[in-house]
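Please, is this right?
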Amino acid sequence: MNKNLLLIFTRNPELGKVKTRLAKTVGDETALEIYKFLLQKTRTVSSKVTSDKAVYYSVKIREHDLWDANSYQKHQQVGEDLGIRMCNAFKNGFEAGYEKVLIIGSDLHDLTTENIETAFNELDTNDIVLGPAEDGGYYLLGMKSLQENIFHNKKWGTATVRKDTLADLKDKKVHLLHELNDVDVFEDIEHHPAFQQFLK
């Protein structure tokens, strides 16, 4: 087996359940279309990564969807908040024998295959790799052993997540990737060329 594992957290694409902050401006239908577009992009980018891959579904595992079961292990997210769900996914990865585990979400249009490969490589010489998001969170997190403390006592979805996470890691060697913008609100896509097709 490959020693590297890429975890992908996704929401089940259901009307009114995805990109709710964005939907306030563009409506539920368009928000769902945009989320499906982001899922496709995430699949395209991740499919070229040389690691093993696992998709973690928010609500229930779908058998026949865009994530081909031959390429992607399929799991259910478990836990009452995002931190615990991520922690459990990392635990599964390390318990299965992987040496480097990375997690990404599925709402980042600007993430590239190279970003992900770079993150795995940086774990050769660092304990943690973090991809900072413009909103104060992070779009990618990677580690070589489970750092359980970083998943607790965070206000998920707020601007303090990255700062609080880095504070927990002050005695570890952390590599920061380039800052990227994930898609949460209308301003994130308003002037982005890839999203103009949805804004007509």
Observations:
- Residues 4-198 form a domain with the Spore Coat Polysaccharide Biosynthesis Protein SpsA; Chain A fold (CATH 3.90.550.10).
- The mean pLDDT is 95.
